[in-house]
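Look over this record as teaching material.
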Amino acid sequence: MAIGLVGCNSNEEKFVQKEFYGISFKIPAEWGEPAGESKDNIAYSLGLNGPTTSIFYIYAFPKETYKSKFYNEEEKTYKGVFELTSEENLNNKLKLKIMNVSNKDYIVRDESSPKNLILLSFVETKDHVLEVTMEIPEEYYENNKKFIHSIYNSIRKK
């Protein structure tokens, strides 16, 4: 049974351990090297073919001055476009926020394109707050929840 990744033929997908700013996590080996990396963020392309974004990324912020550039805690929105629709508890005691495109009138949507969603989890280390995020098509998430949760459940503080 395939888990839905491009090129995947079995549930025995090969995962590799990665480290970033005091955490470790496992991602599919086929994601390869980061698609982008700087001193405070790292991003991997999921390799999904289609008209929408499919990316996994982590931003690190100094703990003493932490204020997210993307998530608005009061409004429970991400980049002003995605709204919190649910939260799930992960096995590693983190919470996974699931955010869908807002239905507010001022948000421009292309109804013909597949809808994306944001998955967001916060990890607090000794010196940093990390935002671990995936932007993926809604349908991909619905068809691959167990696989996606395994990535988020692999996050550990070093």
In short: The first strand starts at residue 15 and ends at 20. Confidence is low (pLDDT under 50) at residues 1-11. The helical segments are 138-143, 145-153. Residues 3 and 145 are 9 Å apart (CA to CA).
